[in-house]
Protein 1
Amino acid sequence: MSTIFLKSQRSLFHYPRTQFEIMSFRSASKLAMKAFRQNGARRVIPATRSMSVLARAGVMSRSAARVAPMVQTRGVRTMDFGGVKETVWERNDWPREKLLDYFKNDTLAVIGYGSQGHGQGLNARDNGLNVIVGVREGGASWKAAIEDGWVPGKNLFPMEEAIKKGTIIMDLLSDAAQTETWPTIAPLLTKGKTLYFSHGFSVVFKDQTKVVPPKDIDVILAAPKGSGRTVRSLFKEGRGINSSVAVFQNVSGKADEKAVAIAVAIGSGFIYKTTFEREVVSDLVGERGCLMGGINGLFLAQYQTLREHGHTPAEAFNETVEEATQSLYPLIGKYGLDYMFAACSTTARRGAIDWTQRFYDANKKVLEDLYENVANGNEAKRSLEYNSKPNYRELYEKELAEIRDLEIWRAGETVRSLRPEENKH
Ligand SMILES: NC(=O)C1=CN([C@@H]2O[C@H](COP(=O)(O)OP(=O)(O)OC[C@H]3O[C@@H](n4cnc5c(N)ncnc54)[C@H](OP(=O)(O)O)[C@@H]3O)[C@@H](O)[C@H]2O)C=CC1
Ligand SMILES: CC(=O)[C@](C)(O)C(=O)O
Ligand SMILES: [Mg+2]
Ligand SMILES: [Mg+2]
């Protein structure tokens, strides 16, 4: 199995362990802060994230607390991400009129109507673009599309017909289905069309998927960093999900701009550049790690430990999942981890900082194994084998039912029912 990345960079992040390393880590961060100040970029600390809370908590380093708050200037193409400059685009770079003009001669053919097809198709349609959907006639997606207002024969067609009518072919089938349908789709990708993905999977793992696009078409991706349902809900809130964009083939010479434009058209908020390889590897690692698999494992391990030592389900669930998702994690999302630590007791803060190293060390080994398994194609192989089974949906329903039936999640159902918003009386 060929490995995409033959050499892996030494880990860019080394959590300081020894007192010496901590000292040098602090002096390094002071130097970085000084360099950061000198390059003119400034960073604002949200007004609601009052300095007094942070200063009292001693969270801000002394040098940062002394200088005026720094603001990261917006609306520029280059922004500073923790000291590394990256190119970003924002949705207000592509107002609706500009999108409509740019895509005036295009028909966006959304192939597949799962979570992403639903979100991206409806957002592009609401942006006024000419969008059609192509799925298996009479299948679950066909019925779902009709429920969302797509009309058979008008903007809803069997897959092949939609591809023939489309100028930008958005392959939003499941990754396994992209492989299975490729022999049908490939001949329909005629010169001048654009092939679009939301994941680098099929193109990068071509040894397994056999997905090799024709050489005379643009091949681009826009990968929303979140569920297709959230792609839709954030768009309806007037916001947008963050997405990465990449170009695999640029025959027209306009593929880079097209990728950014379509990322905005499908409802993205801010957009950053990647490559097909980096998108698929980071995405497969993320969903198996912190985003889904890793957090599931940590929830289960903590809940089980508490229960084995006699804590009740209500106590074990609240201390593991409910407080995390309802109170503490949202603070990380709004203001960062240091803010959340500062908002908790000094007792919690001391223990959390002390135990970070143990969890980091235990998980770093797992993440290295995971990264290797993704980069060498093993995870892609596993995914294709399982998701290509004819009864893959039924198999997942059985596995998800087993998760749902675990005590932790049955307890969770009761806890959720007790939330104020669930008790309107
Ligand atoms: N889910 C997400 O939030 C994210 C997904 N992505 C990427 O977006 C793409 C689409 O993912 P997602 O929206 O989750 O789609 P799903 O994985 O849910 O795939 C469902 C779609 O694939 C179709 N399909 C499945 N098997 C076949 C087949 N054998 N022949 C024809 N059609 C088939 C289904 O049609 P039918 O109903 O007829 O079976 C349905 O329209 C993938 O590349 C994914 O990696 C990227 C970011 C996030
Ligand atoms: C929602 C998302 O970004 C995932 C987890 O990568 C996916 O659904 O593939
Ligand atoms: Mg994914
Ligand atoms: Mg993802």
Protein 2
Amino acid sequence: MTTDQPEYGNLVTRQETCALATVRRVAAMLDVDPNTFANGDSLPRGWQFILLAADSRRSEIRSDGFPGLGVPLPDLGLPRLLLGGRSVEYRRDIPIGSNLLRKSRIQKVSHKETLSGQMAIVTIEHELNTVDEPEPALVEFQTYIMMSAATNRTPTAPAEGAPPAGAVSVTPDDTLLFQYSALGFNSHKIHLDRAYARETEGFTDLVVNGGLATLLFTEHFRKEVGQKMTTLRTKHLAPLFCARPISILMDRDGESWRLEAFDDRGVRAMEMLVTTA
Ligand SMILES: C/C(=C\C(=O)SCCNC(=O)CCNC(=O)[C@H](O)C(C)(C)COP(=O)(O)OP(=O)(O)OC[C@H]1O[C@@H](n2cnc3c(N)ncnc32)[C@H](O)[C@@H]1OP(=O)(O)O)C(=O)O
């Protein structure tokens, strides 16, 4: 059963700065030379997570360590949460060093009864405007799946065999997970606290943040294709785990690219669709 809730609608506005120091740290995390970036250069498309962090007070942090969505959302009584997907439209470049106005709101909340229990699907919309332009430079929708406490049901998808041949492999480790969480001011414990991830949420290991997996995809796209993305859409189908190789496959269809991620057991865990101008 699905029930669509009317918009919560409260618009939250914030001042953000695309700080060179933070951009240099993202570069360092990705093993890119930080000295190749300067004020006035364009923020690489895919790196906007540093401008979309929540700034919740410590007293507002959820029991799972998640700082919240950065916009008011009533307590839905669903203590667990995973990123379901994102959809981004890049309209203009964001200059490094620029000041931005960020507008965020809950766009939609749907409630579902599923085999795993109650679920809410929450979509939040962010716009980033450079101060001198009336139209947003970037519009991003993020969908979070909120769930009841972990049951006996394992959240790990069934094994399907080996990863596909011809894929590029990347293995996120504890350090990468920590640095991504720190740069996004995200203290969710499934990415940082192995005992919590296993014992409280029932995962086999630390879960790779879907935003980090997306960043690894967009970096792969930047290096292999080199064209500017105009849109990207992701869907997270199964969790990816720390210290396990992720296999990335990329296919082109005209001006669109489809990237898929498989875990070390061959489970298709994520897909990303990219278009270019
Ligand atoms: C936290 C956090 C950030 C993160 O990045 S967490 C890591 C990244 N995300 C994931 O690893 C999620 C991977 N996906 C899953 O584990 C499963 O898909 C999930 C979400 C547990 C749902 O699986 P179920 O088997 O329990 O449910 P169903 O597949 O039957 O779906 C039930 C309804 O939910 C809708 N739905 C499912 N997945 C998504 C999705 N990715 N996006 C949007 N909607 C989704 C599905 O359509 C079903 O609805 P129907 O109307 O079709 O019944 C951080 O920032 O800290």
Protein 3
Amino acid sequence: MAALVKRVGLGTRPLLPVVQAWDLDARRWVRALRRSPVKVLFPSGEVVERKLDPGKQPRKAAAEASPREQRQKQQIQGPASQTPSTWEESGLRYDKAFPGDKRLSSVMTIVKSRPFREKQGKILLEGRRLIADALKAGAVPQIFFFSRLEYIKELPIEKLKGVSLIKVKFEDIKDWSDLVTPQGIMGIFAKPDHVKMTYPETQLRHTLPISLICDNLRDPGNLGTILRSAAGAGCSKVLLTKGCVDAWEPKVLRAGMGAHFQVPIINNLDWEAVPDHLPTDTRVYVADNCGLYVQAQAQRSNKASDYGWVRDQRPLKFHEYEEEDLESGASQCWLPELEVQSYDSDWTEAPAAVVIGGETHGVSLESLQLAESTGGGRLLIPVVPGVDSLNSAMAASILLFEGKRQLRVRDGC
Ligand SMILES: C[S@@+](CC[C@H](N)C(=O)[O-])C[C@H]1O[C@@H](n2cnc3c(N)ncnc32)[C@H](O)[C@@H]1O
């Protein structure tokens, strides 16, 4: 308390302790008011003289946290919440950033760049909920920058040992924030390793035998949205091939809304390594808009013609490879022969993995080869002729929830 209270005098008036409202939690507030009267300095700069009204709860103590903040706090802490006294007993200390302090800016420069992030093995997490989810899942924090001590006190104290705690101005956090509404807390964590993470019990209970493979997905908003859908559907894991945007990039984290700590994500994989991360009997299905195939006449007799689309000729995007091969005299027949099936035909009898192609080039040759070698196929979501393709995140969501529906129907629940 001593650190928070200083004595000031105004003219000839007696000296009164000045209490900074934002530094107080309810218990300390009561204690401060017992020494009443006190001057309370509010964040707005307003100074109000306050006395403790015997028998009445100090109004500001309750008001310090608005009902929304209290709800948020409860969500973050869970039922066994951290009591403020525990913080005091913990002996944890924090530093205040001094004018011209470069600690925040130098760390931010590092974690906002993918090469640095990868080299240093650090990531940036922003916001109270995301940080709390990360801690619950076992992510390891290294530094917290925060503008209000309450944000740190909400976190489980046992996870803060050995972590640098640095109080900075809200404006500084705002300058570096990726959020529309900056939340006043940022954490630098060691890059999470999916093997060492503990995913939420409810999530594990709802996991489906469906994996998702992102193939050269470049847009952070799309990837974040896909991760969120994957977590929502109960996908067992998400694999990202080399060429995808980094799953730990701030914009992906923002769009993911916590999915990073609900579903295992395996980043930066070579195609040869993909099967090692799938159950042995997995069939790989490639989501393919078949946009580069011609629409054929309805009289063709295979399944896909029911939907007005068939694979009538080799995809134009692969012609380039074929011609190169012809010049060099290599085999002409290496393009996988894969059945096109409608997304709502049954594809979940065996564990399945769905490949979603990137925004520009669609699915890769490697994905088609893997689908062929595992006995999978192409999944087509029929769209109105003339519409080329769906957004990758939309296609992924439709397919994952269709897979979930099929499994539910089969299990009779
Ligand atoms: C925007 S699309 C790719 C468009 C790309 N220009 C192409 O021609 O393949 C991104 C990915 O979403 C999936 N997708 C989009 N529309 C689809 C559809 N109608 N059926 C199945 N998958 C689809 C595919 O995996 C596709 O590669």
Protein 4
Amino acid sequence: MTLAIMGAMSEEIAPILERVGEYKTTAYAGNTYYEASYKGINLVIAYSKIGKVFSTLTATTMCEHFGAQKLLFSGVAGAISPKLKVGDLIVATKLAQHDLDITAFGHPFGYVPEGSVYVEADKELIALSKEVAVEMGKSVQEGIIATGDQFVADEKRKNWIGETFKADALEMEGASVAVVCDALDVPFFILRAISDAADMDASFSFDEFLETSAVESAEFVMKMVDKL
Ligand SMILES: Nc1ncnc2c(CN3C[C@H](CSc4cnccn4)[C@@H](O)C3)c[nH]c12
């Protein structure tokens, strides 16, 4: 089985590469892909670069060019739910694009014809994450994640996203990865560790907690890989 492990930033996959140790590096379509054999599983690892377009390209490449049959995303996110604090983990049950807007034609935010507002993550992988959470003694929240091409550092925007999509966290890549995997029929799982509260202090909090939160998410994802 070939398993994709994806992040958006180098800091989000660095802990994964460290864990697998040896890997083959391939430059392809403006990105770098790392292939490793890990406990009998062929891994393809990459960070996409920031945003929905780059993450779409990388998720598609991992599935179509490297033959990934499942995709796990590990990274950080901004919290919307007040229950989510820095370092907490959230598993996406479904994802939406908060900056997709053709409401001028009467459609709901996040919707375009022949699309859907939400894309649901793979239930088996979510169930596996629940097992890992118990084994690790970690409380992992499940919720809706909203994705958009903006770093949100504004209480008003954050609250609008929360109310409009009933979202618990926000980031910049998950929903595009979801659309790709759903279209290609590749089971996917999006895990994020909170780095900030998407408010006026977000960039400072992000800078301070990116690394530790990225490790939190990566360690959890690798525990899931160990059980696949
Ligand atoms: N508040 C927030 N809003 C939107 N997204 C996020 C995230 C998740 N990632 C981190 C990174 C921020 S942009 C970036 C640009 N330059 C340096 C670092 N990050 C982008 O890949 C999305 C964490 N907090 C978020």
